[in-house]
Amino acid sequence: MPLTDAQRTEIEEHGQTTATTKRPTVPALEEILFKAHPVLDHGFVRVIDYMGDDAAIVQAARVSYGRGTRKVSEDTGLIRYLMRHRHSTPFEMCEIKFHIKLPIFIARQWIRHRTANVNEYSARYSIMDREFYLPSPEHMAAQSTSNRQGRGDVLDAETAAKVMNLLRDDAIRCYDTYENLLDTDNGPGLARELARMNLTLNTYTQWYWKVDLHNLMHFLSLRIDPHAQYEIRAYAEVMLSMLEAWVPIAATAFKEYRVGAVTFSATMISLLRKMLAGETVTQENSGLSRREWDEFQKVLHG
Questions:
Q1: From CA 256, how far away is CA 80, in angstroms rounded?
Q2: Which residue numbers in the chain have pLDDT < 50?
Q3: What is the pLDDT of residue 70?
Q4: Contact 174, 200 (CB under 8 A)
Q5: Which residues contact 139 (CB under 8 A, 6 or more apart)?
């Protein structure tokens, strides 16, 4: 299970605590504050704290002295304008802090986004939990033959079961060794900072991840993309729902202009104009590489 009974009790007790504040709050996000949203087999995401809301974006853009000075429709129009023209600074005025439990190999991919503040569970100080990520059969796939960093066809049931057993057995064996290395009575009592090197990359870790709204949306735009690895995409999709609760106007603009939009090169725009004018355009006379042409056609024809 992602959480123990003691952890659930701690979260529930924390959720009962309230405070009077003059800061703007968002009822929809307050409703899910501190609650753990399950991801994968043992992971979760929960919002710990936040600052700002849709109105804070508008306030920063206008550098106004107060809030609620314009109609909602005008605020919506401004936020959509800011998103459309990639004026990012007003979005940086809002921040959010997550508590995330995730496999180590996803954490190492995630940390490539160097625009957040991170504090990870320390295996030098504490002992790692006996929890490992094991993919479900529908996500057990062979290496793609056309994408060097992606998955191809799903493995057949028999092969998937064999792979699952190998992953599980390796993780358990390595953790058993880890425990033995740490044992001060019947083992060598090895230092935690050394014993941890034996753990498999599917072992779960945890961290606090604090990020501003602009960089959160950049993270999500990359990680909810269908080409992103499934495991990190699963976290991004949960976080997208939290974004929608937190800043619904900005989230709608984000999905409109970033998630659901595409970017054409100058050459592609020129080709599109020729097509609209009735000219015949082929890959051979387009000036695009085969890969660019295929991507262009996929956007045009779906």
A1: 9
A2: none
A3: 63
A4: yes
A5: 154, 230, 231
Q: How far apart are CA 300 and CA 302, in angstroms?
A: 6
* Structure-token pair, residue 229: 């690895």
Per-residue confidence (pLDDT) for residue 68, from 0 to 100: 53
> Do residues 255 and 225 lie in contact, with contact meaning Cβ atoms separated by under 8 Å?
no
Distance between CA 222 and CA 199 in Å, rounded? 29
Q: Is 208 exposed, middle or buried (0-12, 13-18, 19+ CB in 10 A)?
A: middle
Neighbours of 174 (CB within 10 A): 16
Instruction: Count CB neighbours of 11 within 10 A.
Output: 16
Place of tokens 């033995």: 180
**Distance from C-alpha of 251 to C-alpha of 244, rounded to nearest angstrom:** 5
Residue 121 near residue 207 (C-beta atoms within 8 A): yes
State the catalytic residue, choosing from 223, 273, 290, 291. Answer: 223
Cα–Cα distance for residue pair 11/5, rounded to 1 Å: 10
- Residue 91, judged by CB atoms within 10 A of its CB (0-12, 13-18, 19+), counts as buried
The rounded distance, in Å, linking the Cα atoms of 44 and 264 is 36
Does residue 113 contact residue 219 with C-beta atoms inside 8 Å?
A: yes
8 is catalytic: no
pLDDT at 138: 92
